[in-house]
Amino acid sequence: MSFFPEVSPVDDDELPEAWVPPAWTQPPAGWLPGRLAEAALLARTDEVAVAVTGVTAHPSGVGIELQSTLRNPGQGRRAWAVLVDRFEGGRFRPGLADETAGLRFGVQLADGSTAIADMGHGFGGHGGHDEVPVGPVLTFAPQGGQGDDRLMTSTGTLWLWPLPADGPLELVLAWPEFGVPETRHRFEHLELDAAARRAQPLWEA
Q1: Model's pTM, two decimal places?
Q2: CB within 8 Å of 107: residues ≥ 6 apart
Q3: What are the residue ranges of helices labelled H in 111-164?
């Protein structure tokens, strides 16, 4: 008699029910968005630069693609490693970055409504998975980074839900830890409706 109990095989033919993230948390999966030809340098200091590299639209919302770049001001490898960790928000060595002075984003729409992004992970303060919040809602999804001993670049996307009406949109940012005061960039007329109509699913349901 074996010491171990018999292990029953798992039926791999059963397809588990997929969990679909709420529309206000991220762009829809499996879609090709409509893209707008937008790019802008939002802020620049001696050490960091923050830029918009693209704007995409879906029927459910807007994606604002971001790139942040850190430049080595001539420091040695040890000091550069500390600076990079502060740039990345202290994810790898907690305590180095000032959590109260980190990078923040917000938007103001043509109708005067505003939203501020939770720069952490998850759903932030927008309620549970089944609780539909009152828009607009702005979330940030970090995507990754790369660099060397000279430059470090980090990318991410702001997701604004629901799709706002065409017109001006102000993007607001601040990064006190790196000397970036509250700064605004105004996109004068984003043709979001037309771009959203160009979005399409990769496969028919």
Answers
A1: 0.85
A2: 114, 115, 136, 138, 158, 160, 169, 170, 171, 172
A3: none
